[in-house]
Amino acid sequence: MLPKVINMVSLSGFSQLSLHHVGMIVIAIILLYLAIVKKFEPLLLLPISFGVLLSNLPGTGLMNEPTANQIGGLLHYLYQGVRLGIYPPLIFLGIGAMTDFSPLIAHPKTLLLGAAAQFGIFTTFFGATLMGFNLQEAGSTAIIGGADGPTSIYLTSLLAPELLGAIAIAAYIYIALVPLIQPPIIKALTTKEERAIEMKQLRPVSKTELIIFPVLVTIVVGLIVPQSVTLVGMLMLGNLLRVTGVTKRLADTAANSLTNIVTILLMLSVGASLEADVFFNWKFIGIITLGLAAFAVSTIAGLFMGKLMAKFSKEKINPIIGAAGVSAVPEAARCAQKLGREANPNNFLLMHAMAPNVAGVIGSAVAAGVLLSLLG
Amino acid sequence: MFLQSLEVTIIGMSTVFFVLAILALILKVEGYLVTRVRSGPEKIKEEEKEERIRRQIEEEVEDKKVAAAISAAIYAYLEDEKEDS
């Protein structure tokens, strides 16, 4: 009996526990605390942190690859959806089914605000290469500036999979921190008078326009940047399911059940991929710093484009909607609405800010496609 | 490496702007056409007429405001003159 007990003890996690494992378990608990108590993107951070915990418990073999006489661990198989770039496009399908593009269709000029807000991605890419990241790592880090979690995960899984966990965590932390990061930047760069500008009500958009939009975007983007069609195409398919009115069941499934299922699988897999070597590394600190810089530059570029449009446009444009060009939907739009109302209680900017916000989703997916075609 | 990353930065940003600008242009034209088709030429003429009348009324109101301000100033001046004399 004693040899069996000794064997059990030698197979237990305690005998294989290293300092790295302990460090990662502590990090998992901190992330769980942030998700549950501080409510930082709990739908995403909770499965991520639990994935970190599961994969860093020694001896479980959850991330083990299959061998000739043994099947692989559960998380290894779930991770294939990330590695092969399957989960992020499915999330985009759900996002498309949830998104109302009518503010953008009614005010197409705001697509330029969505484009300007991608500036942070490319300036950070340049900065990251100067800091010593290779081109693929720099591209994956810079995409955090688009403030789009699935896009960051998709691009990183194809360009620098070893950084996946770190980049996903950085991206979602900054998305959760939009209400803290953006207001000081917006207030510093705009006057109260600018923030108080009221915008004209948007025109109503017909059903025909709503149906043409996803097809049109898919064709145009697909012809110019084919690499971005995986994301943009799925986004537009989801939207088409929503707007036609003949596929309500499918739209409902894509927007709710499918998105929820894929979110669990994606976040669990991302968390499981976060290893101690990646976390306790100068690159992780670099990713966090560059991610913040990318996000701030994107906000500033959106604001300046907003100011430019306000100056040259015939109609009144509140420049702070430019900051909503980063694709953190709807947090960035809510932030513009809140600051607009603070400056002028009669100001209702939410729908106006939603236009550059959803333009940012398209913009960051296009930016990811461009980086993929240039660096992949 | 420096030149390569500079290239990616410039090409990347230009492409994103180009794609979204093209989309903006197409959507603008589409919106214009759909509004025209939906409204029909007669309705558009009617809307334009209403808009013209609205502007005319606004201009008249503005003129009246200016006239009222001028007459108030003249009246105040005359009152002052009367008091002085």
Quick structural gist:
The complex is a heterodimer of chains A (376) and B (85). Chain A is mainly α and 376 residues long.
Provide the descriptors you would attach to this structure in a database record.
heterodimer; A: 376 residues; mainly alpha; 21 helices; globular; B: 85 residues; 1 helix; 98% helix; elongated
Q: What percent of residues of chain B are in strands? A: under 5%
Assembly level: heterodimer
Low-confidence stretches of chain B: none
Taking the alpha carbons of the first and last residues of chain A, their distance comes to: 57 Å
Please state the structural category of chain A. Answer: mainly alpha
> Can you tell me the overall shape of chain A?
globular
What features would you describe in this structure?
The complex is a heterodimer of chains A (376) and B (85). Chain A is mainly alpha-helical and 376 residues long. Chain A has helices spanning 2-11, 13-16, 19-36, 42-55, 74-83, 87-98, 102-106, 111-116, 119-130, 135-142, 149-159, 164-176, 178-189, 192-195, 207-224, 229-244, 248-272, 276-279, 282-312, 331-343, 350-375. Chain A is globular, with a radius of gyration of 22 Å. Chain B is 98% helix and 0% strand. The longest helix of chain B has 83 residues, at 2-84. The interface between A and B is large, with 43 and 29 residues.
Write the layout of secondary structure elements.
The complex is a heterodimer of chains A (376) and B (85).
Chain A: H1 2-11, H2 13-16, H3 19-36, H4 42-55, H5 74-83, H6 87-98, H7 102-106, H8 111-116, H9 119-130, H10 135-142, H11 149-159, H12 164-176, H13 178-189, H14 192-195, H15 207-224, H16 229-244, H17 248-272, H18 276-279, H19 282-312, H20 331-343, H21 350-375
Helix pairs in contact in A: 3-4, 4-17, 5-17, 6-11, 6-16, 6-17, 9-10, 9-19, 10-11, 11-12, 11-21, 12-19, 13-19, 13-20, 15-16, 16-17, 20-21
Chain B: H1 2-84
